[in-house]
Amino acid sequence: MHHSITILTGAGISAESGISTFRDPGGIWTQYDIEDVATPEAFARNPALVHDFYNTRRDQVRSARPNAAHEALARLQKSYSAPVHIITQNVDDLHEKGGAVDVIHMHGSYQTALCAACGSRWPAPPAMRHDDPCPSCAAPATRPDVVWFGEMPYHMDQIDEILSTTSLFVSIGTSGAVYPAAGFHRLARAAGAATLELNLEPSEITAMFDEARHGPATQLVPAWVATLLAE
Ligand code: OAD
Q1: Domain made up of 24-63+112-146: CATH architecture
Q2: CA-CA distance, 165 to 70, in Å (whole number)?
Q3: Is the pTM of this model over 0.90?
């Protein structure tokens, strides 16, 4: 009997699609200060700078292609005999471009804009500006639909429910530096799940997993999926 699998992904799964990670050498947080571009205070202080940062990143992601790891997870989701939940910290849409469905974007998405005044969402224009009027309430309060440091990640009730009932928790391409995602393995394990890490190198929390495999996601993930689908 097969039980559900829950997968948490981070920037490492999109690295081989040409999208920078955050904390690797040359990563985004080695070039920018989080306090300048990724907090509510930064946005209040200088919305144009924050929009510039996200507009540039959104533009880079637009032309990126999913890689073999994204595609393998979509295959698993389609063919496995039990539910496969994909929770991502990534704001890119490469899981969806690779064929995955119902991806839970806990840190938001580049695909949508969010009205800071009324909370409505709409498709992100190529370049977003703070004073773009909200299509619902007309307030000039447009912000990226991403979760900043100091804000609550999205879909946490749904995620808690999934983690409390899953049989296998797999962390892919994430450094384990940012909570609450960095604590998901603990919640899953407390509820009885086995835990597996697939990452380029040992993460900050490798020792907490039942098993860890290290290497590029485009190799590790398809190999792991092939084994599961052959069982
Ligand atoms: P990080 O940049 O912190 O970590 C990326 C991880 O991916 C590292 O452990 C790398 O070793 C690994 N990695 C790099 N290339 C890889 C490859 N080709 N195959 C497999 N693994 C690879 O990114 P995240 O853990 O996703 O949040 O960061 C978590 C959050 O911090 C992000 O969602 C973002 C950031 O600040 C917000 O902006 C709210």
Answers
A1: 2-Layer Sandwich (3.30)
A2: 24
A3: yes
Output the residue whose Cα is nearest ligand 1's atom 22.
12
Active site residues: 107
CATH number listed for the domain at residues 1-19+66-107+153-231: 3.40.50.1220
Q: What are 88's strand-pairing partners? A: 9, 105
CA 17 – ligand 1 centroid, Å: 13
Tens of pLDDT, residues 46-101:
999 999 999 999 999 999 999 999 999 999 999 999 999 999 999 999 999 999 99
Structural domain boundaries of the chain?
A: 1-19+66-107+153-231, 24-63+112-146
SS3 state of residue 142: strand
And the tokens for 73? Answer: 């997870």
CB 14 within 8 A of CB 91: no
Question: In the numeric block, which tokens belong to residue 127?
Answer: 């370049």
Contact 66, 9 (CB under 8 A): no
